[in-house]
Structure formats: structure tokens, C-alpha cells
Amino acid sequence: MPKLDGLKSVLDFLKGLQPKISAQLAKKVLALNIEPLPADSKPLKGYSGIYRVDSGEYRIIYRFLPEEDLVEVLLVGKRNDDEVYKKIKRLLDG
Q1: Residues 6+ away with beta carbon under 8 Å from 20
Q2: Domain ranges within the chain, ordered by starting residue
Q3: Which of 3, 28, 33, 48 could form a disulfide with 55 if both were Cys (CB 3.0 to 4.6 A apart)?
């Protein structure tokens, strides 16, 4: 079972959400620990080893490093605006 990293940023994001939505997102993130590449995950275009998975109206963007047995959650954000993609681009492209 891979290690899960990046939970601090996930928890910070979840604090401002309704409890039901927060629980759904937390469950989805923790499921990545069991199955790092679930059937509904998709590679993020333009980035090797970076994936996205949806939970309701939110998107979880993460890196899976099989050689290190690690899932690193990079960002959680709303799907319906491009802000999540702008943030991940700034994060990854420096």
C-alpha cells in the first residue's frame, strides 16, 4: 500500500467546506492510498506521472510515484473553473 503525502494541504482546504462535501473528498483522497490509479483517474495533460480524479464538483490532482510507493496530493480545487489548472501550472512549472 503506497504512502500518502500532502494531507496537510488537503485538510486546510477541507476546513472551509460543508461537512458532507468534506467527508466525500476525504474519502476519495484516502482511497488513493489503496488504489493509486482508480478507474476514474486520468493523466493530467502535459505532465508525466500527474493524475486527476473527480469527487463531485471538486478535482483532486496528485502525483503517483510507483518506484517510491508514494501518492502525493498536490492540489484540491473546484472543477468548474480554470483556477485549479492555473494553480497546478504555477506549482509545477515554478
Answers
A1: none
A2: 3-93
A3: 28
